[in-house]
Amino acid sequence: MKNRWLIVLGFLGAILLGAFVFMLPVSSASHTWMKPMDALFTACSAVCITGLTVVDVGKDLSCFGQVVLACLVQLGCAGIMTCATFFLVVVGRQVSLQSEFSLMNAYGVSGVRGFRSLVVWVVVAMLLIEALGTLALWGQFTGGQQFSEAVRDVHSWYRAWFFSVMAFCNAGFSIEPGSIAAFGDQPLVVVTMGVLVILGGVGFIVLYNVCTVKFWRRNLMKRGRLTLHARVVLKWTFLFTLIMFAFYVLLEWKGSLARFDWQEKPAVAFFQALTPRTCGFTVVPVENMHPATRFLSEVMMFIGAAPGGAGGGIKITTFAVFVTTLLAICRGHRDTVMFKRAVPEAVVRESIVILFVFAALITCAMTVLLVTEKDISFEYLLFETVSAVSTTGLSCADTTVSLSTAGRVVIMLCMFCGRLGALAIVMLVGGQDEHISIRFPKEELVVG
């Protein structure tokens, strides 16, 4: 129980500290004090790696404020406990058993070989991928310049670093107007950011597993293998990307994609197929999309990305277990089997709990918002709520800015709960597990 509260208190502390820094004049482009509610909302969105914002990041925040924003996003992405443990390892301090259990809860694993090496690997991998992303984006931003001139272009380096961090961490903060609409005519930039979004969305557990498998080895014992978790995440990520890409092209080819040429449309459609599940960036304004596209985006936001990664939602593995269980019941099978492996009954129960807790959270938040936000349409409020709970960061028009103080508090609570995860919330509320030795008699109950 204490391990779970450590994570909660860590996130709360980071949010409050970030809000205080944002309030300072040095964080503002106008060198004035930021309103406490705006600062708190921005810090909460950053630590929860969401991307919803009530300020214009490119205009209202100074360079210092933007760097603080990026640092909070990275802190939220890697995890408070991961970063704290990483610094302990770097300075040679002993990692407590309590910290190990806290991180295991955060990553959703029961045990990890080489725990210290995993923590270091997570932080180093994050920084390395962001560095490679920065280099790739810098090359695109300075494509028409001489090499010596491009190297000295500090602004291009800064833009490339900022967008690389935000893409990998799956946070939708942008220093450009209209999210990343300015890159719609640069397919390579869009695809590069899409790859970063995928790497951040599949999670550190999958990346670690893939990087430790020696695919070139003929000996299966020495080669290693992809775990069930990695195979499920990779398979369903590919399926959802393919399905969303097909629907987006079908629904938006003559709509929001009409202004792009034939070379740009596939890249934009590819990115827009990714962003609802994980990231709040968008090339096309959400309000300009077909209503069916917005609805499918809400479904994808609800499902989310993979555990142990930067994305939110109920998690793609939760949805996979839920669907596989339904199919097993329909076929009369007793076990939930994936890749010739039986999924433990406890995991199946947890998946059902996660799904319904998220649905209940959205229902409660929507009920309150419908009372407090009378000037915003139901569709836009639902989209905003799902986006906040799933920590995606997409928004219709200026819905976030138009929220009242009460509405912003509700959205902040949604983002915070969404970042913690439904299972963590249930465990915090429910307390410690109690092993009951008494078994009660069974009796039939009519359902359905």
Total count of strands: 2
Oligomer type: single chain
Q: Order of strands side by side in the largest beta sheet?
A: 1-2
In the predicted model, the low-confidence regions spanning at least 5 consecutive residues are 105-112
Strand content: under 5%
Account of the 3D structure:
The protein is mainly α. It has one domain. Helix content is 65%, strand content 1%. The protein contains 21 helices and 2 strands. The protein has helices at residues 2-23, 36-47, 57-60, 63-78, 80-90, 97-107, 115-141, 147-151, 154-168, 187-202, 204-212, 220-223, 228-252, 264-278, 291-303, 316-330, 345-372, 378-389, 399-402, 405-420, 422-430; strands spanning 337-338, 341-342. It has a two-stranded antiparallel sheet with strand order 1-2. Helix 7 crosses helix 9, helix 10 (187-202) runs parallel beside helix 14 and helix 13 (228-252) packs antiparallel against helix 15 (291-303). The radius of gyration is 22 Å and the shape is globular. Residues 105-112 have low confidence and may be disordered.
